[in-house]
Write a structure and sequence with these properties.
The protein is of the alpha/beta class. The chain has a single domain (12-242), classed as TIM Barrel (Alpha-Beta Barrel), CATH 3.20.20. Helices cover 35% and strands 16% of the residues. The protein is built from 8 helices and 10 strands. It starts with 7 loop residues before the first strand and ends in a 22-residue tail after the last helix. This is Thiazole synthase. It is found in: Cytoplasm. Its EC number is 2.8.1.10. Belongs to the ThiG family.
Length: 264
Amino acid sequence: MPSSLHSLTVAGRNYRSRLLVGTGKYRDFAETRAAIDASGAEIVTVAIRRTNIGQNHGEPNLLDVLPPSQFTILPNTAGCYTAADAVRTLRLARELLEGHALCKLEVLGDPASLFPNMPETLKAAEILVKEGFEVMVYCADDPIQARMLEEIGCVAVMPLASLIGSGMGIVNPWNLRLIIDNARVPVLVDAGVGTASDAAIAMELGCDGVLMNTAIAHARDPLLMASAMKKAVEAGREAFLAGRMPRKYYSADPSSPTTGLIGS
């Protein structure tokens, strides 16, 4: 199958992998690097408020094990609860990454559910786009607000499948389909994936990619799970492109020919 059918295009750049991974929750940076290598991911997201990429001098620097020459670093605003905090955090990230514009915006509503605060998210997105950031945005699975974010100029919308870190999988596939069917920018599932089948389902629905962290980092064997997620995303994409057979709820269809049978 042509590689062009598999490549993900974000902000005008092509990526072979449609799996994006986070860098938190691992035992150490060595495990982080090993898991990301196993996943095949090219875009790795970094929580600027929790991970050192140069802002804390004298501490281990994630960029030493995940150099920007090998990976696209996607700074994110995890832990921000207001538009002002999110904008301030990404301005710092751009400075640390020498003008890097691609970023992941998330503005949380509360520390219990980590559900997105959409009014603050929309406010932050508008400011960041005007300042030249290429914004991939974590959002509710609301097709109207997803469209609003696209109209603001976000380069990708990233609706949650279920709550961050819950591992509950895709709880509302219908809303995701509404977003996918109407979007003109990439749609990536962000949050809630628990295992490989969840990632495959997201891709079969027509998502352009999947972002995950906890599902890999908190697996019993993170490297093996990273490899499984890589395969699941690829298989789900191929199944989407192939087009599944129609469901037949009230009749069977034998897989073998029914004509020319012996004795008939």
